[in-house]
Amino acid sequence: MLNLKIDIYLKLIFIISFISIISAYFIEYILGHQPCNLCIIERIPFLLSIILIIINYIFKKNKKFLILLLILIFIFSFAISIYHFGIEQGFFEESAVCGLKNATEIISKEELLKQLQKKTVSCKDVTFRIFGFSLTTINMIISLFIVILLTKIFINYEKFKN
Questions:
Q1: CB-based contacts of 54: which residues, under 8 Å, 6+ apart?
Q2: Whole-Å CA distances, 143 to 46, 59, 92, 119
Q3: 1 lies in some domain
């Protein structure tokens, strides 16, 4: 791994996160592939990393704490991706998360019937692939890469700080 400054690695993670979010919304809204609930949950770590990195650049707070926080966020992302990948491959059964809709929008029995008539995207159905890989698989690889990168930076913080 190159011995670059921490700021460059944080910018790289920001760019990866930004591209990931933009790609997800492009695939959903422009290409018309509806995400399942786990796909939507998998976006959260990328959004959080963008927000945290922006906040860090504005307030110039402790980068070591930010790196630790990002490691935890992307461990969560990796774990959710592994679980989703397991559902796609048939290793795990779909959980209740896969079928949940926003319960606050259901006010009456008519609304409930409308929700039941809508086709929901199953967590085991892969609707979009890039080079034969599902977006969950790509998310799993990206999250693992970021965790390894940030862990190495955290362990060697003093060396990267200079």
A1: 14
A2: 9, 26, 21, 30
A3: no
pTM of the model: 0.79
Q: Structural domain of residue 119, as residue ranges?
A: 6-161
The average pLDDT across 63-91 equals: 90
Cα separation, 37 vs 41, whole angstroms: 6
Domain count, the chain: 1
Spatial distance between the Cα atoms of 21 and 44, rounded to a whole number of angstroms: 9
Residue listed under structure tokens 């990948």: 85
pLDDT at 63: 85
- Whether 106 maps to a domain, the answer reads yes
How many Å apart are CA 10 and CA 66, to the nearest integer? 10
Residue 50 pLDDT > 90, yes or no?
yes
Average pLDDT over residues 102-122: 59
Indicate the burial class of 109 (C-beta count within 10 angstroms; 0-12, 13-18, 19 or more). Answer: exposed
Q: How far is CA 35 from CA 14, 39, 125, 144, 154, in A?
A: 23, 6, 10, 22, 34
Tokens at 160, concatenated: 């990267």
C-alpha span between 150 and 45 (Å, rounded): 14
pLDDT of residue 1: 46
